[in-house]
Amino acid sequence: xxxxxxxxxxxxxxxxxxxxxxxxxxxxxxxxxxxxxxxxxxxxxxxxxxxxxxxxxxxxxxxxxxxxxxxxxxxxxxxxxxxxxxxxxxxxxxxxxxxxxxxxxxxxxxxxxxxxxxxxxxxxxxxxxxxxxxxxxxxx
Length: 140
Hints:
By secondary structure, the protein is an alpha/beta fold. 29% of the residues lie in helices and 21% in strands. The protein is built from four helices and five strands; from the N terminus they run H-H-E-E-E-H-E-H-E. Strands 3-2-1-4-5 form a five-stranded mixed sheet, with helices on one face. Helix 3 (81-96) packs parallel to helix 4 (113-121). InterPro entries: Integrase_cat-core, Retrovirus_Pol_polyprotein, RNaseH-like_sf, RNaseH_sf. Residues 34-140 form the Integrase catalytic domain.
C-alpha cells in the first residue's frame, strides 16, 4: 500500500505543484575580527589574466593589511604556486613579518601544497573564503 500511495503522489501533477520546496536554513555569518597590529591579518588575491605586458607579465597579485589598509602589489608572469610563494616570502614575510592569518579565496594556487607548507612554516593560519562571493575578502 505504501508503494502505491507513493507512486500515485509522485505522478500526480497537482500533488507536485502544491509541494513546498525544502529550504536550507541560512548559516551564521561570523565577522572577521579586527587586527591589533599591522600585518597580523592580510588578504591575498590574484587578478588576471591580462594581456602580456612588455616585461612578460599577465597576472597581478595583491596583498592588503587589514589594519592599516597598506597594499603590496606585484606583476607576475604566471599564476603558479612558486610565484605566489616567492611573493609571500620576499614581499610580506621578509619585509613586514609573518602574518598570523592569511585570507584567500579557494583558488587552485592558494590550495597548493607549496603555499600551504609556507603558511605552516610561518605559523600562519590560512583562512579560505567562500567561493564566488568576493565580498568576503572585499578589502583585498
